[in-house]
Input
Amino acid sequence: MALLARRTVTKIYLGAGMVAGLAGLAWLADERVALGPTDGRGFRPIRWPFPPDAWPPGRAWTGHDLDFYVRLKFDVCSDCETGVISDEAVDRVIDIDRLDPRFVPDGPGKRIRITDLFGRSRLYRHKMHNGAPRLAEGIAVAYKCDLLVAIVDGDMADPDKRKMAYQFLESNTVQVWVNKQLEAR
Output
């Protein structure tokens, strides 16, 4: 049996490399299409990073050094008329322990409004997986007896970042997803 020429072997390797590269690009493109488009302000969807629990998985976005984890919790408001009004209620519903079970509240919370929904927010100190300290804000607003719960992870002590985060939570990107979840219920 004759040996293949060096040039032929090189072309085979280059062809195989190109096929592998194209397969990888096709896989990445498929992942991006499944997650959805990046919005006009630079926030892009990412996979829900948390393991399954009693609630439906939420939606996650990242951009501008902020990570958003948004989910709905159905029929959990103890008082459907007033919604979330205490820091203890925020601590209970926002699942900040999924970022770090040793989270620490960073002072009292405050009343908040996201679109036409009212609730409460609170800052939390936690450590990232690499041990770096981080400040996140937990937000819980009520819609009838359902809750929209969000964690915004990033430098939430910066007023500009907080304003940007609230604007994103009120954007069509998030609100269309929320409305689809409520309609599918």
Summary: DSSP finds four helices and eight strands in the chain. Strands lie at 44-46, 59-63, 66-73, 104-105, 110-114, 117-127, 133-143, 146-154. The helical segments are 6-35, 87-93, 159-169, 172-184. The first helix runs from residue 6 to 35.
